[in-house]
Records
---
Amino acid sequence: MEFFKPGTHIDFMGKSTYALLFSAAMILIGIISLILHGGPNYGIDFAGGTVIQVRFSQSVSPGEIRESLKDVGLTGMVQRFGAEGVGEYLIRLQTTTSDLEGLSATIEGALAKRFEGKTVEIRRTEMVGPKVGKDLRTKGLQAIIVALIGILIYISWRFKFRFAVGAVVALIHDVTITVGVLSLTNTELSLTVLAALLTIVGYSLNDTIVVYDRIRENMGRMRREALEKTVNISINETLSRTILTSGTTLLVIVILFLMGGGVIHDFAFTLLIGIVVGTYSSIFVASPLVVMWEKWFPSKGEKRRT
Amino acid sequence: MAGKKSTFRWRLVLILFVLIGALIYCFPTLVRETPSWWPKFFPQDKIHLGLDLQGGMHLILEVETAKAVESAAERIKNDLKNDLKKEQIIFTSLDRVQGDKIEVVLLNPEVKEKFDTYRKEQYPLLQEIDSKQEGDRVKVLLEIDPRYREDREQSAVDQALETIRNRVDQFGVSEPEIARQGANRILIQLPGIKDPQRAKDLLGKTALLEFKLVDEGYDLSRALAGDIPFGDVILFQKVEDPKTGAVRKIPYLIQDKTLMTGDALKDARVSFDQNNMPYISISLNPAGARDFDRLTADNVGRKLAIILDGNVYSAPVIKQRISGGAAVIEGRFTLDEAKDLAIILRAGSLPAPVQILEERTVGPSLGQDSINKGIKSIIIGGILVVLFMIVYYHLAGMVADVALIMNLLIIMGVLAAIPGATLTLPGIAGLVLTVGMAVDANVLIFERIREELRLGKPPRAALETGYSKAFLTIMDANVTTFIAAVVLLQFGTGPIKGFAVTLSIGIAASMFTAIVVTRFIFDYVLSKFRVKRLSI
């Protein structure tokens, strides 16, 4: 079985201008969304606060939960957790108290009183102090930057610098668009989502490297060809593999997204976006950038027609 | 071909070794209980589950090291006060200011000179940061040597860690994790804990035990009105009504001079009185017993207050001199309270108060849910990938599937084998992700082989070139993911760390299975049968 017949020839490089415009638009939309939302939608891991996960024996309305919280003098956000009809909700409060059990007991009492006849179970309580949240934010950003630098160094060593530039720009592109989509969909940035972002940093590079590897190999064979053509041939030759691997990975992530349960939901969603964007960028961003870099800063010593 | 044959055998041994090893380590996890025939020297441990999967409590405490420095400053101040009096270096006031600094007002510049010489000789830890002449008096501001200060802060955290470890050990939690985090934080993980509040009370209490005398020579109501004699403080005893649960506070006027502290304790046990009410009997170490002997002898007929963290627990009358170093603490304890107090007293006090910075409690039912859903995702995702590979690559796809299954076994085996590794919910996600990614290497190889076959190469040559050309690409692609995983490992806490661990193991294992194992299977088939056409 084959998805792409040998000899497939799609003119990716010819479409790279549109692709770059598309990418720029995506990034812009993401950034605008981030500005309008006043920065990323930090979850309690990074912003501090308290989250309590409750489950009712039957589905109830989030509004009513909010009301019952008001009865005990608490204001919080209530959102459905997991699939509809399960009766599972997240209650998020700004306060950070050291008496978390007291708080959750208060809430349990208030809920039990209002929803008589339905059982309430407190399944999870989490409190993160503002100090820890701030620390994690700095450390998270550091982690992403350190990972990017590490990868830049590795690719510069294995390939040429112009490849490394293309790869890292593509990575920043992937992460920015993913964060933008998270902002648009109002997904909370939590520790697990950060882990997903870092995984994207590693994973989206997979595709890029496979294409780059082929470009490098073909550059040796096709000395007389224009770099642009070599790049285009290389993308086409690896297309089958690129789509296949992204496909199998996406397959399992979709399963995880659908069946993994509430806690893993955002994680899977982030990966889903990241892998789609990452696959796109290795073809439409990382590879054209190598050609552009070569046009702007021709490498010395190598004679080649452009 | 002799060389070829020997690498063939060698590879077979390696693969069998890894496979059997992985199976042995996986076994305890896969069965509910290890059967009786399972040899004792074989691994017995199941894969360690993270708190998010098995339920439990995660705490991050911050040791308020500044308080430890302050109490050190307080001690030094008291010593200095006594010594200056002894040396007849006259001062009009001597106080602790700004937390950990000491301010002395000396009689005149002459005394200041005397004071300076004395300080340099006897208190090298104190450094002058400011001195001002005010009329005749000289006001001196002293601070503690920064190196000593740092030392105090460090040892406060070390001590707190030790004390908390002791308390957790005695509380009886199976497989707790207690570790230092950063300069002054302590991470505590208590799997499967049922009563989080009780655990928190137990861990968070400073448990500073003090013995002080009650001041009975003064009218308590006047003191409560605000007229407190010099050197006295008012402390309360909390009494809870067993029926209504209402808390009553009984005030005591206490002479604020610590006669003994919990340091003098050797042991603390729960005992019961004739009404079957629990109380705590303590025994003192030799030095403590001596002090207690003298203390009781000097103060027969007076009330001795036993104070824990500023709360009076009991204030019995000293009926007679007590020798031998045994005493009791009474209070209206419930059995659990008495047990916990005894643990705290045995484990010792924290050198400084601690503050809860982060707390996460996961109920066991949620954890079980997560496990079930995670396993379901792995199985369904796995089956889909396996089927896809067969449809797309036929027999070669099956070979890749064998590698995939072996890959999962190795990851589980390694997770079970490494003592520190835990499987967390994101870790399960990592496992699912690995299933998707593990076939990547094989896809790369197979696509290469197909290309070579198209060029008209015979099966064996196509195989050879396919593997060798794909190898570097696979390597490069995996190293970058590995870099990201290692960064996560450094950065991450709990669940994230679990994800990074699974991902890293998955990458290493998939390189082995996708390259070594599949290659071996192909080589074996090609050497046994006359293959004219690869099913790929």
---
Amino acid sequence: MGGKRILEVKDLQTYFFTRRGTVKAVDGVSFGIDRGETLGLVGESGCGKSMTCLSILRLVPQPAGRIVGGQILLEGDDLLRKSDREMREIRGKKISMILQDPMTSLNPVYPIGDQVGEPLRFHQRLDRKSAAARVLEMLRQVRIPSPEVRVREYPHQMSGGMRQRIVGAMALTCRPELLIADEPTTALDVTIQAQFLKLLKEMQRDFNLSLIVVTHDFGIVAKICDRVAVMYAGKIVELAGIRALFNRPRHPYTMALMNSVPKMERKVNRLTSISGQPPDLKELPPGCSFAPRCSLAMDICRKEYPPVSTAGEGHTLTCWLAREDAAGG
Amino acid sequence: MPPVGEILLEAKNLTKHFPVNRGLLFSRSVGAVRAVDGIHFTIRRGETFGLVGESGCGKTTTSRLILLLERITRGTILFQGRNIETLAGPELQGYRRRVQAVFQDPYSSLSPRMRVGTIIAEPIRANRAAPEEAVPDRVGKALEVVGLPRDRADHYPHEFSGGQRQRIAIARALAVEPQLIILDEPVSALDVSIRAQVMNLLREVQEEFGLTYLLIAHDLAVVKHMSHRIGVMYLGKLVENAESEELYQHPFHPYTQALYSAALPSHPDIQREEIVLPGDVPSPLHPPPGCRFHTRCPQARPLCSEEEPPLRDVAGGHEVACHQ
């Protein structure tokens, strides 16, 4: 097991302290990821999926946000005990991140060659010339046409898909072991999205990357993930391999979310919708956060948060119903 | 699917070019962005016509032409047989009342300084759709139709969630009893768990009031779920137009095929034939000659770069613009 597991997050808690109360953005999240594996983090806006990723990189917005508890073990080494300086050595070199909007993650006033080369010059102390050679190689790898010309161009001269590939090149120049992609294709068109997802899979194979993909779209999960964690109101409610999750989702939230999306293959007249809306993280209901919207909620759901139950190998969920099943069967 | 009636709206050779000017004082036109370039389609009463295509293909410009928010460069739009550009006075006002719109972002389409009741009352008053004393009741009814309590009319938009705001935008469109509603990405700004609520509501009110929709969206599954017919656009051209299930089962145009193959699966075991298109969409300022798709088309032949394929019927109302 030792060499296989690259990252282990244990009981992570990231809170925001605001004047109107404490927001538990990430509230006791635990998961692990193996080398070469792709883990999907799925949920709606505000469920804590992005904050979980920012916590891993220790980039939680300061001073309101703080990681108040838990462990983030990168190859057994707790990132929460690292100094800021040590963290800077890890970001971009061991763990990289791709953000949703390529326009805001590229600097508009520098040519893209400089930006892709920056991590090389910082982490590997390469001189301008050798960095430039590596940059060309990277741009070729992410299929930028005529990279010799493109390195001197600025982000505004490129299309959205090309910008996102540049961001990808930037994240991968130092051969990180873990790549976190936060909604990497949400800003892209359908055919460009397909291009980028294919590229991401190829890069993963070539570099033996571990990948965390944050998304609200089960389609992306079905397309590229191996395992998936479903988040709701700061907690992981279900964690499973994708086949187990798609064939037999167990948590009512996962089931409801999957049923509420129209599917191309099947024609329905009415979508099953989830009533109500995601809760305010400042005033979470007692018990299970999903209980007020859950069609299967019982009395206990409104009183006490359910413990973790196992529904199969590597398939866990937090729901009282799973508890009952286990007791009854 | 409800029965579909006579033709409500017809676009003939519809074209919109945006001139590109250079020079400040003596500016001259140096070309044109050919946003919409000679498209034909019809929308029948009671149906939902979906327009799909990637950004810059001209689907939003098409809807803005219908809403008279842009001047038509060439071609005509007929609404119940009348050319909408020649309408004036009360007839023009009548047209504007009959055609309403719901936009993508309910955070920017509702004024933050107006109470919800005032927002919904505005089109009623502007169109004199009801006498002043009847306005509050009309507003209340519109709110009830979209599933919000009447007394929420006194609240401001910021007091509502995204899904509720989109309901308010729908109520505003419904308040003047329109015939056609343009839905421009009506659910893409909403949370996943809220989208189904809004899609169900749109279909309910369509059936209840016999509404006709023009739906613009990029999510193919959403468009397929909502639409009777779907038109596929690429660089200002309508490349395919067919009944929604037929288009999914038998996409004919290579672009449509690529679009469907790029759509994300709903289950990991669904393996679609992968057609990954090379490159990016060319600039509409200098669209390629012949078929506009030939630069990325996996099946392109020499003819495709020379001659533009016309839209022709291939199977009972299934129209395609392709040389194959």
